[in-house]
């Protein structure tokens, strides 16, 4: 059960229109200190608190926030369901070991929620509806035993039930103030008087009736924006803001069982085109820690042309990433290797870091190629030198001793890059072994490689 | 020997002249028996720098390493080549048994970037070996690389000009290579466990084709740095 903690020093109240009048549905501590209470009319609240800021309740923004939180909660479990307007239910029994126990999971959830600027009541129970009632009652307990859950719930007021006001009033009238009182009423009579829904709700909470909940499905692509409190001039300062968006992305990717290989950070400026900063990963990933590292290094090397007022994190393409725990089982050396490649590419430039591969061409200078990914099945040739000169060097005076050859290479007449050469292995005065050729057209000699 | 001296000698950072064979833990066999015999632990030191000094390229300095690079390429972990002077030639590397999938080449623009790249590669632990051709070496930079190699437990090979033989170096192993009639003469300038006086001659696999030429040698030589 979650509510947004607005850090405003002035008294603030959120109001909602109902029956032609505005009612306070929430207020901050400052307003409460002036005597403002929930369920008070807006007019009364304004009279009590001087300079009260009144905000209209925005249902769609609330729902968007809840959906955002559901996406974030995907980092804990793929089974998240919404309890609008302000509840999230997470099925966590199957993923406790992944998060090293319940206490640890709750700690992570708590700090995550705080980091995003929300406050929450968190409760755990063997049934989701039981947990929901505990959270609404403000009992932040982790109850594992069904009998204990029944004991705790029995003492809670009936007002916590999701029943229409008529039913709740009826219960009060028969003297059932707590849920325990309801449980002691004869079931048959209760169903007749208050409807089957009340019985079902109690049974759901206590696990006597199986629950069927629809799980939250995240949208197909990810895009979240964050308005900055003040314009930011320095790219490095952006990483603090961007860091808030990454946990949500990670949760989104876990829910979708997916990873990203490219991320875009769009910086919006006033009266200027957006700056788009691209992040590339060696392999699809959903590890927020890794994204953050890459983000830090990228932003550290970015100069901003203008101050940024809004930051948008976008994953244009989402790729399937098989198992939910792929990162856990991946060989660490392989993961380190991807990270190393990414870091080198950020600093040295994309084209300065490459693998090499053989190519099907007889011309030695075209028989290899750099490739962005690691090379594939190569064609070996043991008559080739380990070093190839990027451009053949002409030879002049002195003596080279020809050790072996010739190997005639004639090729490329079809693409204008034709060569006609006789290659030899030669040794110079200093004992270095070179790969030389005689150009058959001109009779000139060139060095093309070194047998290092 | 009294007991306090004994306890000092137990410290892993201390090696004694007579202990050569025991010092280097899991060394990497070079593929040349004569060389393994004089190297501590019987091979290239993992988790340390090896300096290869030579006056001239093309005398077999890479062929000296290919057997161990081929073996490393069977495991995971990259063979990183930082700032190579020429193009590492794919067909020849494959012929030497090196899996090209493990190869990554970095061509940094500046010397500072090249030193940084080498350090990252060593420190990450993601590389089986790092080969680097770096300019503007100084002791501080060398020491950083040696520490990074220890941290990442990676075999770092620096190729430098033979002039550097006179300089001090934190590298665990320093070799001077010279061509000889029987192959390659390897002088060990520094190793853990005391000096070796005689150079070791290593017979390298023959370069290029075996077929003998009958053509008369042309009058030419290499214009070459």
Helices and strands of chain B: which structural class?
alpha/beta
Radius of gyration of chain A: 34 Å
Q: Strand pairing plus helix content of chain A: what structural class?
A: alpha+beta
Tell me, what's the shape of chain B?
globular
Biggest interface and which pair forms it? A-B, 75 and 63 residues
Distance between the termini of chain B: 55 Å
From the 3D structure, determine the CATH topology of the domain at 26-31 and 43-161 in chain B. Rossmann fold
**What fold name stands as the CATH topology of the largest domain in chain A?**
Dna Ligase, domain 1
Q: Tell me the CATH architecture of the domain at 26-31 and 43-161 in chain B.
A: 3-Layer(aba) Sandwich
* Biggest sheet statistics of chain A: 5 strands, antiparallel
What is the level-2 CATH architecture name of the largest domain in chain A?
Answer: 2-Layer Sandwich
The ordered string of helix (H) and strand (E) elements of chain B is: HHHEHEEHEHEHEEEEE
Tell me the span between the first and last alpha carbons of chain A.
69 Å
Q: In terms of per-residue confidence, which ranges of chain B show pLDDT below 50 for 5 or more consecutive residues?
A: 19-24, 221-225
Number of helices of chain A: 14
Instruction: Give the oligomeric state.
Output: heterodimer
Count of helical stretches of chain B:
7
How many strand elements of chain A?
19
Please tell me the overall pLDDT of chain A. 83
Strand content of chain B: 15-25%
